[in-house]
Amino acid sequence: MSLSLVLVQLLNGAQFGVLLFLVAAGLTLVFGVMDFINLAHGVQYMLGAYVAASLGVWAGDFWLGLLMALPVTLLIGLALEWLVFRHLYQRDHLAQVLATFGVILTLDEAARAIWGSAPLNVPQPGGLPGGIEIMPGLIYPVYRLVIIGAGLLVALLLWFLVERTRAGMLIRAGASNAPMVSALGVDIRRLFTAVFAFGAMLAGFAGALASPVFAVAPGMGDNVLILAFVVIVIGGIGSIRGAFIAALLVGLLDTAGRALLPDLLRLVMDASSARQTGAAIASMLVYIVMAAILFFRPVGLFPGPRA
Hints:
Layout: H1 3-34, H2 41-59, H3 62-83, H4 93-115, E1 131-135, E2 138-141, H5 142-164, H6 166-183, H7 188-210, H8 221-235, H9 240-265, H10 271-296
Antiparallel strand pairs: 1-2
């Protein structure tokens, strides 16, 4: 196992981690503030990828398509909240799960009807060099570094918004005691709508960023959604700091585990067994770590206001 392989997997894990954070940040705000389980949040990730790819082709510039995807996914989030989700806020979690699962099926089929079932390959964005030399003999794609930088910037902006602005104060207060905030004259329904739409836009932004890296296809948000739920459970429901740290942890474990575990197991078993055993353990590693963390910290590493 070479140092360059380890470094590449760490960077890939960080890149995947920041994408998970962008999805999980909106999900943890919706769950923490509204106590609403939205299984359809991963669909926003898929729609962001499709919209950015389509608008990028139409505009002739991926970056312009990515920027235009932000208001489009925001509007889609507002439409879904108005048409479906606001009618479920007072329902129990089982009703929310069933209804939002129906939204997943509906929008996945809509994506197939509009864009087809074949994966859509998005070319690498223009205006960037192909790669940068991280160390002698190791060239790493610049666009993946751009994803990491964008995720870190969004994390900083989210922290400032939640912790240092009046809107963030209302979000934190709404998460702690929504009836009291409403009694003080705040339109809690409008606050919930804004939080939901902003979370949808973040998920769409993650999908738009991921479109040149991963194949864009119907259902691409399903696996991301599962890992996003793992992130908010580990980090603590309603906590942006927890979502960020947990997303990086999950991204590194998932990426590095799949790449490095088979090589490590070759030290104690034959190549074929190491490959099979390593793949099996790597697929379970994130969930094993989640169970271990929750055994000692049932509310997560950095619980939010509701904990």
